[in-house]
Every structure is written in structure tokens, then in C-alpha cells.
Amino acid sequence: MAIRIGFIGCGGIANGHMQRLEKIEDAEVVALTDPNPSMMERLQKAFPKLAGVQKFADYKEMLEKVKLDAVGIFSPHTLHFQQAMDCLDRGLHLLMEKPMVCKVEHARKLIAKAEQKKRVVLISYQRHYMPQFRYMREIIQKGELGEVRFIAALQTQNWYAGCKGTWRHTQELSGGGQLNDSGSHLVDIILWTTGLAPAEIFAFIDNLDTPVDINSAISVKFKNGAEGTFTVVGDSPVWWEDITIWGTKGVFFYRNGVLWHQKGEVNKAPEQVTLPLPASDPDRNFINVILGKEQNESPAIGGLRVIELTESAWESGRTGKPIIIK
Q1: What is the Cα gyration radius of the chain?
Q2: Is the pLDDT of residue 279 over 90?
Q3: pTM of the entire structure?
Q4: Does the pLDDT value for residue 57 go beyond 90?
Q5: What is the DSSP letter of 295?
């Protein structure tokens, strides 16, 4: 029998999840919930398979009335924690959009609840399934890059103008700005590929004329002594992402989707890495983890690590002081 899934939140991001889930024989979306009926109607129109599913304005009613095995949480960020806890209380597996939650204390409580209930929690960080980042992680884990000593990570996007007037610029719903939104992917993938743990954070943050962070300049000291910078520019005319990881035996240069590997020989030019197409995605991995076929490639601990760094950066930006991560 297919894994029965309910959607909490039917906005734009739900389309991508539905595109992937409808191709998986072991998955079936059986219910939708969204306070805006037009969001559910639009999703049903885009995917005829959803024509007969039950719809609800309140996710709690869906949990009470529909037999489910799992839930996809695709709602505004600050709603994730309570929705996740309510679902776990009912013994449901969770596929969650990023960021997992917006507070460190919530991340710890969610992880403890999932462990108590023995339920799968998978965060939809799709980069964990992309060959470029899997290659970097594997090389670092094997020790072939040596000890990671410095990281420079940059993300630029027209997030400021593109999200104006939406819930993403509302602190009560977003929990923060671009650092907590698309910047979450940048923070996550650095921590995931390198395996490093931040020890100390110092940040300059500019909200411009909004209630949430737009531009962030973050310096990090890691527990192994490595240093790094995270630069998130939300007021940019162009989308661009640039990651460089220096190890004692080589360097990775990731430039907007293309990866080069310099293997450490002095003055030797970096080589472009040829990689296969992605073999999986968060939705497929989620179903297979529930079925016992695969390991969780994007577990809840990653959500905790991201909000640890993010929350410390916000605090540093607010106080003008360095923050020690416990």
C-alpha cells in the first residue's frame, strides 16, 4: 500500500513536491490543507490526480479526519514547529520545507519528539542529492582535501524586491529574512559537505527598510580552528552563488553550479569535475526511508545545525558582539 500523505500548505513550493511525488508508485497525496482555498484549487488544477482529495482550511481537522502515514509541511516558516509537533503526536512521518524551525529550542524539542515517536523527519534540502555537493562531501570525508581551513560562501539574489508584500517580509510568519529563507540552503550545504561545527559567530546585518534581514555579512570560527565567511546579499540585480573551500591538500571552487577541484599541487590549475545527473531527491528519499529502503540523506539534525548558526548571526547583528555557540 502506498504511503498516504497530507499537505500542510499548498503555495508555490507544494507544486515541486507534487511533481516529484506523483511519479513515485509508493506515494499518494490524499489530503490538502491551506487557509486560502484558491491555493488548493490551483494545485488540484495543475495535478489532475488531486481532483478527488479531501480539502481543509485547518490542518488539525485534516489530522483528525483523514487516515495518514505522513505529512508534508510547506507552510510559512514560523508555523512549522507547532504543525510538526502536532503531526508527530499522531505518529506521522514528516517531510519539511526549510528552514525546519526558527528557534534552536524548537529544533531540539522537535528532534526529541521524533526520536521518542520513532518517526522520520526529512528536511527538503535538495542540494544533499546534487552530485556536485555529494562529490565535495565524499572527498572531504575521505580526507583527500586534507583538513578544511577556510570557507568563503556567497549567495546573491533579488530577494528584497521579489518578496516585497509577501509573508516572507513579515517577521511573525517568516521568522527572519533571506538568511532564514534561501540563505538556509547556503548555510546547510557548507555545514553538511564539510562536517564542520561553528564555535563563534560575528555578523553585520542590514534589514534595509523591512522588518527582516536582507543583507548579511557573517564571519565564523569553527571548532577545528577553521575560519569562514557567509555572505548573503538579498538586494542584488542578479542570482549568483559562489563557494570556495580550502583544505590542506586542495581546494574546491563552486561557481553557480559548476565545480572545479584543485588537487593541491602548487600552481596546478583546478580541473572541472564531470558528474552524473542527480539520482534522487528529498521526496523520493523520504518515501524510501519510511519503507526502510534508504538512509535519511537530510535528517532533522541538519535543521538544528542551520538554526544554531542563523540564530547566533541574528543575535550578533542585533548586539554588535560575537556570539559563542554552546
Answers
A1: 20
A2: no
A3: 0.95
A4: yes
A5: -
Max CA distance (Å), the chain = 65
Instruction: Determine the 3-state secondary structure of 124 from DSSP.
Output: coil
Region label for 233, one of left (φ > 0), alpha (ψ between -120 and 50) or beta (otherwise): beta
Q: Which three cell numbers stand for residue 294?
A: 534508504
DSSP β-ladder status, 227-233 and 148-156? parallel
Cα–Cα distance between 61 and 78 in angstroms, integer?
A: 20
The cell for 280 is: 534522487
**What CA–CA distance (Å, rounded) separates 171 from 53?**
33
Cell numbers given for 234: 538579498
Q: Which pLDDT band holds residue 81 (cuts at 50, 70, 90)?
A: very high
How far apart are the C-alpha atoms of 79 and 173, rounded to whole Å?
Answer: 7
Query: Which H or E run includes 232?
Result: strand 227-233
Coil/strand/helix, residue 83: helix
**Structure-block grid coordinates of residue 5:** 500523505
> CA–CA separation, 228 vs 44, rounded Å?
45
How far is the C-alpha of 32 from the C-alpha of 39, rounded, in Å?
10
Our measurement of the distance from residue 292's CA atom to the centroid of its chain's CA atoms, rounded to an integer in Å, reads: 23
All domains in the chain, ordered by first residue: 3-126 (3.40.50.720), 127-275+300-324 (3.30.360.10)
In the block, residue with C-alpha cell 503555495: 11
Interval 215-234: pLDDT, tens: 999 999 999 999 999 999 99
Dihedral sign, Cα of residue 121, residue 38, residue 46, residue 99: negative
Alpha helices in 225-299 (DSSP H): 282-290
